[in-house]
Specification:
Arc Repressor Mutant, subunit A, D-Maltodextrin-Binding Protein, domain 2
Length: about 300
């Protein structure tokens, strides 16, 4: 009789088009995956994958089985969600996180997740949104807290709130009469998020005024480095005030008033709607709760 584990392995091999990636996704070994697929093909007496030296692809019978496998696995996921306790949920969830979230409420989320789902292991990666978006699409990540929402097909998005951006300077840096005009802002290098992110592209487009010269924009994927560069008088930074609450309170940094109408950074917990979301969907809902509590805390602080 075909068992759920074999169907699950077959399903992920078909989705990832790789035995090794399926093994990594399911926290097992490639030989174990190969053995399961071979046993499944022997039991069904048909080839499920066409193999070459460089790739694999589903056969006609394999494409038929994928539909049934997904139905079975969705039903199992729904059953576990409806009947099982959180302690019964187990597995590895590969989570990608933007550093803005790392600097704010990620530690509280991890603490809550471990308390509610003690048998779920979170494999954490910190990266920028474009990289995490591609990783979600290619199934290299199961869940990501990033700048969203994502518009790719079959991608679920839960709101995690937003953070306003501000122009920030070292407290003892004399910048002139505020609010600063564009010409005054252009006197300084601007330090912000990486080139492929919205804050960088917004600043580049806004400050690219031909008669005023080319803006000097330094991009960096590390918020801690951006903060340090700002403290060292290298330039003005464009970051959320929420990530520098300590530096603002200590008088190391200050917010500079400008004529810029800076956008807010909106974040979502995004995940592929594979098998109904499964553990990733449950963790996304938990993240939305933690983010809501963080928003309430920021409102109480006047942020």
């Amino acid at each position: 009789m075909v068992d759920f584990r074999s169907l699950e392995i077959f399903y992920w091999v078909s989705q990832l088009e790789s035995f090794s990636k399926a093994a990594e996704r399911l926290n097992t070994t490639q030989p174990a995956v190969s053995q399961r697929i071979a046993a499944l093909e022997a039991e069904l007496k048909t080839r499920l994958f066409a193999r070459t030296s460089r790739s694999i692809s589903l056969t006609e019978k394999g494409r038929v089985l994928v539909d049934y496998a997904e139905r079975f696995l969705r039903l199992r996921a729904a059953m576990m969600e409806a009947v099982a306790t959180p302690e019964a949920m187990s597995g590895v969830v590969r989570l990608g996180v933007s550093e803005t979230i790392v600097q704010t409420w990620l530690s509280r989320f991890i603490e809550r997740a471990h308390a509610v789902y003690p048998n779920v292991l979170i494999d954490l990666t910190v990266d920028i949104t474009p990289v995490m978006r591609d990783a979600l699409v290619s199934r290299e990540l199961d869940l990501a807290f990033l700048l969203g929402p994502l518009t790719e097909p079959n991608m679920a998005n839960l709101d995690l709130g937003s953070y306003r951006l501000a122009v920030v300077a070292a407290s003892d840096l004399v910048v002139g009469l505020e609010p600063l005009a564009l010409r005054d802002i252009l006197k300084y290098p601007i330090i912000t998020y990486p080139k492929s992110t919205y804050p960088y592209t917004f600043m580049r487009e806004t400050l690219s005024v031909p008669e005023m010269g080319t803006p000097r924009i330094f991009s960096n994927s590390s918020l801690s480095t951006i903060i340090r560069m700002t403290e060292d008088h290298i330039g003005l930074s464009v970051i959320p005030p929420e990530v520098i609450r300590g530096e603002l309170a200590a008088g190391k940094l200050r917010i500079v008033e400008t004529v810029l109408d800076l956008p807010a950074l909106s974040f979502t917990a995004s995940y592929p709607m594979t098998l109904g979301g499964g553990i990733a969907g449950s963790l996304a809902a938990l993240a939305a709760e933690v983010a809501q509590q963080d928003r309430i805390g920021r409102a109480d602080r006047g942020g």
